[in-house]
Amino acid sequence: MKKSLLITCTTAMFMLVAVARTPAATYTLYNDFTGFQSALGGASYTMEDFEGYSDGDNLNGVEFLPGVKVTSNMANVEAWQKSGSDTNLFAYDASTRQGGNAYYQIDISKDYDAVCLDIDAWHPQSTAGQMDVFFKDSSSTNISLSQTGGSESDPVFFGIIASQPIERIVWNEPLENGGPGNEETALDNIVVSNAVPIPGAVWLLASGLAGLAGFSKRSRRG
What we know:
Blueprint: H1 2-20, E1 27-30, H2 33-39, E2 45-48, E3 68-72, E4 76-81, E5 87-92, H3 94-99, E6 103-108, E7 114-120, E8 129-135, E9 140-145, E10 156-162, E11 166-172, E12 186-193, H4 200-221
Antiparallel strand pairs: 1-10, 2-12, 3-6, 4-5, 5-12, 6-11, 7-10, 7-12, 8-9, 8-11
């Protein structure tokens, strides 16, 4: 009886250690909203398309979705409505873009593990931009994004579903085609959700404890 209890406790402790040592975040990328939405498996999501804001509204550090805000190393982050188009989020600062190091940072304080957005947009012959994704387990990844559309008016979709909550996403703008500065991009249709099921390590712990319960029961019968 005591021996079986000791084995049960010891095995459970090893399983808890396995859970604590969950590996660095893994993720899947999506290049269209249809695929991203399908991968959510019916999970609800929230979207901000910025249509509720007026042209010029200050959005620098403003929480426009629960736990989500955007900052930048550019001085201004505003709602922007180009003539004849919808409203999006646009940062501008001529000197920063001329320096070629302009970026947007999406800060996420809630535990979302699925994020997507449209990037409006850049010349097909320009360099690729870089999306840096930082997870709450302190791991990160760098993803190169190229313009795959036929013109600079075609938005570029970015979607990611990860095994860990996402802490922040940094969009580093591509360099101008034939110039030293950055392409002028904007962000639109930002979506956040929770799509990841119970992590594998937790399933392992649950199934292991269930097995131990059966082992303990058989031991008592013996």
